[in-house]
Amino acid sequence: MNYTDNNIETSYKKILESYLNTGSEHVLYEAQQFTRTLLEHKTSPEELVSLHRSIMDQLYPELPDDIQASFDFLLEAMMGYGMAYREHQILRDRQQ
Amino acid sequence: MNYTDNNIETSYKKILESYLNTGSEHVLYEAQQFTRTLLEHKTSPEELVSLHRSIMDQLYPELPDDIQASFDFLLEAMMGYGMAYREHQILRDRQQ
């Protein structure tokens, strides 16, 4: 399957929903494949957490505040990885 | 504050709990500082998601199955970032 910037959110929602409904290992494999697309689109790891939070809000409008806040916290904690990841892209581009 | 491998889990729990109790922006800043320590300890981004999931399990033993499963999914999706991050470390070490 090919993904575009526009349908990344829709695709993530579809794969996550499918996993939550089936618990299938095969869907986890799809999630790994999907990550490759995110990396190709230069999506940062904190953007992935933000996407996850946003889709969870859509799937569970009654999500307790504490759970939502915990995603905010994880997002903040992930930001350092985003910086390391962007540094990685610069180093890799330099080596090419 | 200095962290060791042994108390990373305890420290993350303390900071997350403090954020969930207070919602303080200052605690989010602490989370960012804490991430530096995780990076120094070469903790991968999927290990951070796993740590987060484990602490949420401790803080909320009644966490609904779907929420727990959503963390598993996020962890799987984050694995590609872990690989990119390890590649980054290799490139950086080569340049030093």
Largest sheet of chain A: none
Runs of chain A in which pLDDT lies below 50 for 5 or more consecutive residues are none
Structural class of chain A: mainly alpha
| Straight-line N-to-C gap of chain A | 28 Å
Average predicted local confidence, pLDDT of chain A: 89
Q: Based on CA inertia axes, which overall geometry of chain A fits?
A: globular
Number of strands of chain A: 0
Tell me the strand percentage band of chain A.
Answer: under 5%
The largest inter-chain interface, given as chain pair and residues per side, is: A-B, 40 and 41 residues
Oligomer: homodimer
User: Taking Cα atoms only, what radius of gyration of chain A do you get, to the nearest Å?
Assistant: 15 Å
Protein name (chains A, B): PP2C family protein-serine/threonine phosphatase
Structure description:
The structure is a homodimer of 96-residue chains. Chain A contains 4 helices and no strands. Chain A is an all-alpha fold. The mean pLDDT of chain A is 89.
Task: Tag the structure with descriptive keywords.
PP2C family protein-serine/threonine phosphatase (chains A, B); 96 residues; homodimer; mainly alpha; 4 helices
